[in-house]
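note to self — DONT lose this again. spent like an hour looking for the file last time. sequence + predicted structure for the chain T wanted, 235 res
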Amino acid sequence: MIKVLLVDDERIARAELRRLLQAHPTVEIIGEAIDVADAGRQMDHLRPDAVFLDMEMPGESGMAFARRLPTHVRIIFCTAHSAFATEAFEVNAVDYLLKPISPEALSRAVSRLGCSEHPRVEYLPPDFAIILKFGNASRVVRLRDIERFESVGNYVAVHCRFGAALIVGTIARLEQRLDPGHFLRANRAEILRIDAIVNVENGYNGSLSARMESGAVTEISRRQAQWMRAKMAVL
């Protein structure tokens, strides 16, 4: 049984989430909190396995609260806002649900929680969803659909089929959350999704040149090229 705490300042939102979770007998709702301060008071004696956490509430934000949670507590963010908090890359969020929450999206999130004895997931799952802004439009993008990340000053450009969107952060911190089985740090400024690499050619001084699905060409540094040659039989 997975013991969860619901944290949301809207009573209707908590009631709807409670209703939807009735379809999941492995989940036990042990408490509700109306804000971060209320949740903090309940954490010690309730000791939940997971928290369904609204992103923006009066007082302290859900993201700030998430940063302070013990590492064994799993987090599922819930929000009605179109602007994605890019800091979610920096905490071990199991999922990110956009309100109104659909039964299908909730089922996927609950399945990721697994059993309470399972170890904490280190990397973001391929179907982790984020909301990115492209011009005036906000779109939900899954991690598996992102072609590459590129460092741009104090931001990271996220490249996918919709174009490029900027998020706050560093490429080094982002790399810590990405599964190296699916993503490759190509050079100091870029991370590539390995499955999005169409072909690879020899570059200058031992480096490699990777052509992506979009047609973009990225240099893979000599050090990373050595790793690719050893692991992927690149000639």
